[in-house]
Design brief:
Radius of gyration: 26 Å
Order of helices and strands: EEHEHHHEEEEEEHEEHEH
Shape: flat
Number of helices: 7
Strand content: 25-35%
Distance between the termini: 26 Å
Helix content: 25-40%
Number of strands: 12
Length: about 280
Amino acid sequence: MSDLKIEVLEQKPLLTRLRIKGISLHLLNSIRRVIISEVPTMAIDYVAFMENSSVFYDEYLAHRLGLIPLTSDQALWKYKSPEECREAGEKGLFSEDCFVRLSLEGEGGDEAVTLYSDNLVSSDPDVKPSFGKIPIVKLIKPQKVKLEAYARLGRGKEHIKWSPVSVAAHKYVPNILVNQRLCRGEECLKCVEACPKEVFAFQSGEVKVRSDKLLDCTMCKLCENLCPSGAVKVSHEEDEFILTLELTGALSARNVLLESVRILEKKLDDFVETLREKGV
């Protein structure tokens, strides 16, 4: 493996795109799979209803509450592992080192009242809904809802509500070569117009690859297949990829990536240790 290089192509609160060079496909894919299924976040797992006269069943409301993303950056270090806390919850032991309590209470009035995610009151200010205006239930008079919900750390492989990403995908970095000697003037407009990502430009009788659009190429090869002279060849760079993460808001992109590498490293260490114990 060559020297690792990482370039940030795009970074927003819920979207990160990285260009990574010097990494193998199987390693990057392992990191991607760990991000989806192994990186823990907080999510509501148990709900106790004191009152619910809304139009929604208890189970329906509990399901909605479970899918609300909760801020989890600090929770990774403050609470016990998902395995320990799952066992505690199954025994009905909602200890403070495992669970965060979130309470919700409201009733309808002369006009309909909507309870949102920011109406949830958390026992830990570091664990709260990532977004405040997620609707939970609408109440009219005399409907009431009063409940306590318990959130714990979990992993995406247990339920998708614990996954820190809604999308984790990688693709090759395209490599497009245009042989100008084979270009036939206006005929080359066919491949230029065929590209759905507008990667090509026709300038001074030549087909040019637009540097600002190159990474948008999906390598569908429409341009290569439609080029009458065979002047366009589409391939990909070796050991160079674009990693795209769409976040749920539970964890920052930095923590998602660092935690995934730490988990993968531990899995490999455990594998090596098991081999040694078996005398392999």
